[in-house]
Amino acid sequence: MANKGPSYGLSRECQLKTSAKFDIKLAKEALAWIEDVTGRTLEPPREDYMDQFDVQAVLKDGQVLCEAMNTIFPNAIKKVNTSKMAFKQRENIELFVKACQQHGMKDVDTFQTDDLYEAKSMYTVGYLLSATLEILQIMVED
To answer: Are 80 and 63 within 8 A, CB to CB?
Structure first.
C-alpha cells in the first residue's frame, strides 16, 4: 500500500469516525474463532491486539481466512497464495469473499478487499467477519 499521507478536513473526520466504530472485542472474538477452526495460533504484531491495525496485520495476506474457509468447506478455495506480493495477498481476500458468497452468504454479509487490505474500514471487517463466521458455523452445523 502506498503511503497516501495524512488526511485533512472532511476526509480526516470520516477517517476518525470509521476508526471510532472499530470494536476490538468483537475482532478478538472473530480471531479466536479462526484459531479454533484452523487450529493455528495467530501472532499479533504486539503483545496483544490493541487496535484495528494489529488485526489488519494478522489478516492482511488473506491466508488464514482461506485456511478457515477450507477447514469449514474442504477445497472451497483451490489455491491459497503464499506470496508476499500485494496482488496475491489481495487475491486471497477476494477468494475468501467469493467462497463465502458461493456458500450462501449475501453480498451485504461480506466485506470488500480494500476494507481489509488497506484498512479502509476495519470496523466493517470486524463486524462482518464475525457475522460471516457465525453464519458459516450455523451452515456447517445444519
So the answer is: yes
Instruction: Report the pLDDT averaged over residues 60-72.
Output: 93
Angle at which helix 52-59 crosses helix 24-38, to 10 degrees, equals 20
Sign of the Cα pseudo-torsion (50, 51, 56, 57, in order): negative
Phi/psi for 41 (5° steps) reads -90, 125
Name the one residue in this structure whose C-alpha cell is 506470496. Answer: 83
**What's the residue count for the chain?**
142
Report residue 76 as a C-alpha cell. Answer: 472451497
How many Å apart are CA 65 and CA 129, to the nearest integer? Answer: 10
CA separation for the pair 63, 100 (Å, rounded): 15
> pLDDT digit string (tens) for 112-124?
999 999 988 888 8
Half-sphere exposure of 124 (CA within 13 A, CB side): 17
pLDDT-based confidence at residue 72 (cuts at 50, 70, 90):
confident
